[in-house]
Amino acid sequence: MPGRELHVISNGQSELERYTRIATLIHPYVTAFHLREKSCSAAEIWEGVHALKACGVPLSKVFINDRVDVAWATGVGGVQLSYRSLAVQVVRRTFPRLRIGRSVHDVHEAEEMCKQGADYLLYGHIFSTDSKPGQGPRGTRALDQVVKKVPIPVIAIGGIKPNHVQQIVATGAAGIAILSGITQSDDPLKSVKDYREALNS
């Protein structure tokens, strides 16, 4: 999909069936669907991927958090890594086909993950969010610093609403990642259109 990236992330709290139903509706507007299901087994994630595929979501748009083995076995587009995951350089060497994202939280970490071979970075949280209670947001100024320090795309995450998008775009970030703003919306299709319109304006 041309233009800025829109990633939609499962929250690990709702059933994958609901996430799949939403993805079926909104995938024309979305760059990547992340399966971030820490409590699911490899077999359950495998089934989730094939449910998405059966509903018409292109596998190239599916990204699996942490489980590089399942990502490789299912032929999805990529994997999202964290500090608990295999090192980026290990995944790059062993699974060269996958697009590799890495979650980072400061400039130093961003530069290091870029050197290791990450294709893009997920940086946040930018604004206050219920998923990070008691943790202050990093804000757009910190995002701007990260974007200026690395040559690869930076995707902003955390408490982002459609009216925040222009602030994000102004930093030079490549796009945004959304959790509850779409998956917990009463009208996910309207919500995703609102985010896409803000990204494209």
TrEMBL record:
Domain Thiamine phosphate synthase/TenI residues, every copy: 9-182
Pathway: Cofactor biosynthesis; thiamine diphosphate biosynthesis
Tree of life domain: Bacteria
InterPro entries (UniProt xref): Aldolase_TIM, ThiamineP_synth_sf, ThiamineP_synth_TenI
Record's GO cellular component terms: cytoplasm
CDD domains linked to this entry: TMP_TenI
Keyword field: Thiamine biosynthesis
GO biological process, one term: thiamine biosynthetic process
Pfam families (alphabetical): TMP-TENI
Record GO terms (molecular function): thiamine-phosphate diphosphorylase activity
Protein name: Thiamine phosphate synthase
Organism this protein belongs to: Paenibacillus glacialis
